[in-house]
């Protein structure tokens, strides 16, 4: 991987988190989200400050967040209404470390599948750690910068931003990789390059196209529609619409054996 | 239908429908995910995605809905774009995977294959894809995502993801069993087909076998019943089934081929002997091709005993009309007789469920004569006793017939017919069971439709060589009634009530067509139903059939009748001239009213109506049967008061009626006629014969009841035929209610026997001529006698 070929990526923007109800149990949903927070706690000097930061995170005081390689930034509103520009810098991994990380990703077919499926496999992180690639930031890897006048380290605003970063990580483990210096597109591009390293032989003759068979009769139950929820969208209702449409289609097909 | 529409329907029918947001932000539906075969089809037929999406979108909308994706008017939802994009990414992959199972020795390996949507028709092993020999990087990523998703349907697949190159899996015995036993279906549902090697024989099926080569001596025996496993359709020998039963591994060497045996089949091979079937159960299996084993329906293999059973049922010996029958059976009645003759010969019993008026009674009488085998017990409602006796005497003269009913009853000698009522049978079932009946007939069998009632239980205690049920109601429409009747005629055919409910009634009522078809096959040999409107039947029916319906008087009626006769005759003997004429007319009128209903004679406004008049009881029977057929019924009476009593009585029974009499205004009259003519289930139409006038069109009528009579047949016939035009569109049955043993009875006999003389005696002026009779003649006319 060649650093100079890689352009400085533009930040990826995420909309601000609204006021959120506190849930019981851990702050983050995924194990890596919580591991990020653990890392943050380990590097912080002031646990009371972190608690205040967590309150801010729930209170909808953090604005839209921008994430780019090694950097996470947002505008955070204070108790007194003042708005601050807050940045947390994250140490990036070296090129050599990324090469070793990609070796680990390629070692098992399931790893890239998991990542694309928004899941960070535990054994990938461990294998990477064995190869001296720690994905999660350690002491000294996080550096908050805020234009507020707080003495604490991190300040409440930076703490709030770090907490919300955990939520971003929950939704997409690639955010962690981006913070450590490598975006998703670059990662998949690199994997592709490795795969295309061999010379591709001439494509085999396309097989003789067989005659087009008739449509087989529909058998077995129709595939159930599974979609994630969204505001104003009930996944069960959509599944019901699709199922009823399937029934109507079957009836029509029975009446017109094409 | 265009090719595009056909393909779109096929996709939607398979559940390949996804919600999406259009470029301009509207909620819509599109087809997806597509299989490579779908993409191939699109390419070859020039069908675009847009065409398919359009059809799918139209199909998914639901009129009247208001939610974003169901509303026929599309909602503007640009905020859902990201959500729609995520769905697209999740479902629309560029690659599909499948498993190719290979056989090396007796071990199986599953090789991962990749199919590309970009090049449908091309399949490559994962190893080749990962080696870069074929397809692009995107297909690789989508292939591993597919494997990850499919691993949720079948867990062992996850092992592939542990490899750098997910090329193949060695399958353990358990995994092979799991894959063959259900894993394959789960993977297919997840879009990952499994291809087994050709050298591995998978065509191993099990069916139930009714064993032996002959039938046991009639329907008292049992037949062997066991599981039969077949490979490639050829049944295995006992030794081969033992081999399967003892095999430890799922892949077994059978007949020189490697065979995959699903765990459930191996289990059947081990426990193959099943509980023996009764002959009636085997008959059920012969008719439907299935048997119920361990809570499930299983196919039954063809075998000799089943063939023999089927042959027995369909044998057609010719049966001719019995010589002793004094009438000629119509063709369809002869067919009914043949069917009953066969079923009773086999001791299987049956239910004749023809419409009223088609001649069930005469068919039964013919059956008795044909069998010439012993006494026949007829159980019927009290109001029909008279009818049975009359028809037996008429069509089988010389055959003994007695009524076993009322106080002082006894079973006299047992030949010919014994008639009894449901009520009497219930009380005296023990006495009746001491007789060796050849046939027991349940007339209007819907009276025992409740299998738990004492009456139904009592009926079952009476044994006979064969049992026949007669009913005019469409019994096949009500499954529990069907069970009650067929379980009595042919015990064991439908199983216990609980079994019947679980195996037949529930699935049929929930709309299962396959089970409904099997049930029809099972009961068809045991139920014969013809309707008046059937093409073979209607031409054989005359436009108008008239039947006299004798009924008995209740005790109250008999008492009143005798009192009126005694008192009025005494006064008549003492008077002459005009005064005498007046008294005679008064006598005749009073007696007619008593025969109709005591409440009419006594002038009661609000009395209790049921249970006091034989005519009313029979009318109820007729109304029930006719309404169950959906037929139109006219009831004629001379008296408006009687019509109003009938109106009240039927109303109390929940039967809709309408009343037309002299005072009904013309406009209302037209309304009533229209309501009757145009209704699928018309109200019972009560009419006063005299006052209704001419020119009403009542061709919707199938039945006419003359509750009481004019005694001039010509006027009566004229009024009914011309005035109402009945019998023009459809055959009509006319029932004349006659109180047995009374003057009505005697006059009816006279009318039937000597038409010309009757005309001379009665002339054209109703009862006027009767006033000329002498005292002695009058006394003889009105005397109350026992039923003939």
Structure, explained:
The complex is a heterodimer of chains A (258) and B (788). Chain A has 258 residues and is of the alpha+beta class. Among the domains of chain A are: 9-94 and 136-188, no CATH class; 218-258, no CATH class. Chain A has helices at 31-43, 47-58, 95-107, 109-116, 122-130, 156-171, 174-179, 184-195, 235-255, and strands at residues 12-14, 62-68, 71-77, 83-90, 142-146. Chain A has a five-stranded antiparallel sheet. By secondary structure, chain B is α/β, with parallel strands linked by helices. Chain B folds into five domains: 3-91, no CATH class; 95-197, no CATH class; 204-312, no CATH class; 315-528, Tandem AAA-ATPase domain (Rossmann fold), CATH 3.40.50; 548-782, P-loop containing nucleotide triphosphate hydrolases (Rossmann fold, 3-Layer(aba) Sandwich). A seven-stranded parallel sheet of chain B has the order 19-20-18-21-22-17-23. Chain B starts with a helix and ends in a 6-residue tail after the last helix. The relative contact order of chain B is 0.05. Chains A and B meet through helix 4, helix 8 and helix 9 of A and helix 1, strand 1, helix 2, helix 3 and helix 4 of B. Chain A: Residues 198-231 are annotated as: Disordered.
């Amino acid at each position: 991987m060649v650093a100079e070929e890689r352009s400085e990526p533009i930040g990826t923007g995420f909309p601000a988190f609204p006021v959120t109800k506190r849930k019981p149990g851990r702050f983050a949903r995924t194990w890596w989200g919580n591991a990020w927070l653990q890392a943050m706690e380990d590097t912080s000097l002031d646990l009371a400050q972190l608690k205040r930061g967590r309150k801010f995170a729930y209170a909808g005081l953090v604005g839209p967040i921008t994430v780019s390689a090694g950097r996470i930034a947002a505008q955070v509103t204070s108790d007194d209404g003042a708005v601050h520009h807050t940045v947390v810098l994250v140490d990036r991994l070296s090129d050599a470390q990324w090469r070793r990380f990609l070796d680990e990703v390629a070692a098992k077919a399931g790893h890239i599948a998991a990542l694309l499926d928004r899941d960070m496999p535990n054994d990938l992180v461990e294998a990477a750690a064995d190869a001296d690639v720690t994905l999660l930031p350690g002491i000294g890897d996080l550096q908050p910068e805020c234009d507020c006048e707080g003495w604490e380290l991190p300040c409440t605003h930076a703490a709030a931003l770090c907490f919300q970063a955990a939520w971003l990580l929950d939704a997409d483990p690639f955010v962690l990789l981006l913070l450590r210096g490598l975006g998703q597109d670059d990662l998949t591009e690199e994997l592709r390059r490795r795969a295309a390293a061999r010379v591709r032989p001439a494509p085999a003759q396309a097989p003789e196209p067989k005659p087009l068979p008739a449509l087989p009769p529909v058998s077995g139950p129709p595939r159930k529609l599974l979609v994630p929820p969204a505001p104003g969208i009930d996944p069960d209702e959509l599944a019901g619409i699709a199922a009823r449409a399937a029934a109507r289609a079957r009836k029509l097909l029975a009446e017109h054996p094409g | 239908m265009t090719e595009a529409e056909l393909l779109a329907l096929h996709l939607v029918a398979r559940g390949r429908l996804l919600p999406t947001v259009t470029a301009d932000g509207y909620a819509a539906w599109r087809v997806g995910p597509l299989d490579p075969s779908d993409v191939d089809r699109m390419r070859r037929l020039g069908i675009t995605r847009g065409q398919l999406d359009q059809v799918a979108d139209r199909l998914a909308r639901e009129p009247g809905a208001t939610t974003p994706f169901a509303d026929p008017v599309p909602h503007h939802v640009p905020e859902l774009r990201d959500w729609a994009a995520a769905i697209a990414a999740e479902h629309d992959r560029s690659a599909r995977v499948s498993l190719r199972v290979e056989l090396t020795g007796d071990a199986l390996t599953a090789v991962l294959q990749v199919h590309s949507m970009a090049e449908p028709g091309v399949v490559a092993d994962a190893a080749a894809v990962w080696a870069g020999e074929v397809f692009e990087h995107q297909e690789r990523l989508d292939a591993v995502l597919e494997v990850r998703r499919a691993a949720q349907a079948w867990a062992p697949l996850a092992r592939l993801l542990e490899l750098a190159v997910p090329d193949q899996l060695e399958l353990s015995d358990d995994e092979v069993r799991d894959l063959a036993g259900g894993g394959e279906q789960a993977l297919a549902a997840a879009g990952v087909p499994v291809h087994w090697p050709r050298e591995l024989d998978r065509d191993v099926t099990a069916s139930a076998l009714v064993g032996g080569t002959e039938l046991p001596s009639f329907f008292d025996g049992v037949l062997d019943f066991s599981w039969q496993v077949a490979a490639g359709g050829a049944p295995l020998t006992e030794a081969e089934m033992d081999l399967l039963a003892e095999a430890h591994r799922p892949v077994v060497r059978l007949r020189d081929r490697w065979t995959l045996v699903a765990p459930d089949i191996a289990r059947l091979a081990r426990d193959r002997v099943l509980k023996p079937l009764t002959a009636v159960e085997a008959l059920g299996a012969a008719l439907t091709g299935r048997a119920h084993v361990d809570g499930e329906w299983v196919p039954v293999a063809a075998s000799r005993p089943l063939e023999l059973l089927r042959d027995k049922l369909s044998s057609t010996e010719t049966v001719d009309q019995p010589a002793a029958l004094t009438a000629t059976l119509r063709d369809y009645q002869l067919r009914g007789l043949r069917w009953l003759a066969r079923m009773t010969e086999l001791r299987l019993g049956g239910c004749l469920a023809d419409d009223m008026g088609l001649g069930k009674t005469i068919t039964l009488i013919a059956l008795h004569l044909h069998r010439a085998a012993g006494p026949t017990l007829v159980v019927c409602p009290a109001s029909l006793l008279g009818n049975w006796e009359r028809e037996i005497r008429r069509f089988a003269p010389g055959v003994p017939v007695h009524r076993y009913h009322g106080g002082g009853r006894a079973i006299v000698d047992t030949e010919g017919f014994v008639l009894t009522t449901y009520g009497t049978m219930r009380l005296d079932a023990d006495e009746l069971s001491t007789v060796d009946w050849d046939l027991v007939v349940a007339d209007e069998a819907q009276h025992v439709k409740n299998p738990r009632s004492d009456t139904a239980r009592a009926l079952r205690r009476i044994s006979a060589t064969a049992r026949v049920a007669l009913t005019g109601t469409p019994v096949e429409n009500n499954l529990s009634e069907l069970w009650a009747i067929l379980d009595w005629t042919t015990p064991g055919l439908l199983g216990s009530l609980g079994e019947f409910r679980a195996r037949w009634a529930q699935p049929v009522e929930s709309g299962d067509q396959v089970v409904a078809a099997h049930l029809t096959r099972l009961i068809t040999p045991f139920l014969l139903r013809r309707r008046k409107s059937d093409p073979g039947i209607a031409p054989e029916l005359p436009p108008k059939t008239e039947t006299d319906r004798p009924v008995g008087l209740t005790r109250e009626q008999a008492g009143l009748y005798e009192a009126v006769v005694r008192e009025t005759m005494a006064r008549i003997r003492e008077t002459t001239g005009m005064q005498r004429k007046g008294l005679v007319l008064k006598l005749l009128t009073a007696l007619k009213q008593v025969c109709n209903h005591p409440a009419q004679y006594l002038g009661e406004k609000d009395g209790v109506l049921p249970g006091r008049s034989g005519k009313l009881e029979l009318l109820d029977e007729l109304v029930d049967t006719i309404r169950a057929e959906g037929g139109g019924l006219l009831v004629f009476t001379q008296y408006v008061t009687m019509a109003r009593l009938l109106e009240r009585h039927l109303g109390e029974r929940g039967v809709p009626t309408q009343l037309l009499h002299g005072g009904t205004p013309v406009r209302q009259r037209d309304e009533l006629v229209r309501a009757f003519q145009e209704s699928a289930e018309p109200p019972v139409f009560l009419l006063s014969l005299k006052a209704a006038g001419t020119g009403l069109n009542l061709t919707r009528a199938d039945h006419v009841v003359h509750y009481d009579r004019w005694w001039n047949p010509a006027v009566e016939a004229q009024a009914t035929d011309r005035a109402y035009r009945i019998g023009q569109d459809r055959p009509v049955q006319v029932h004349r209610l006659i109180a047995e043993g009374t003057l009505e009875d005697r006059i009816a006999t006279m009318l039937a026997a000597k038409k010309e003389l009757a005309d001379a005696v009665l002339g054209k002026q109703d009862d006027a001529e009767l006033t000329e009779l002498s005292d002695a003649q009058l006394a003889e006319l009105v005397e109350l006698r026992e039923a003939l």
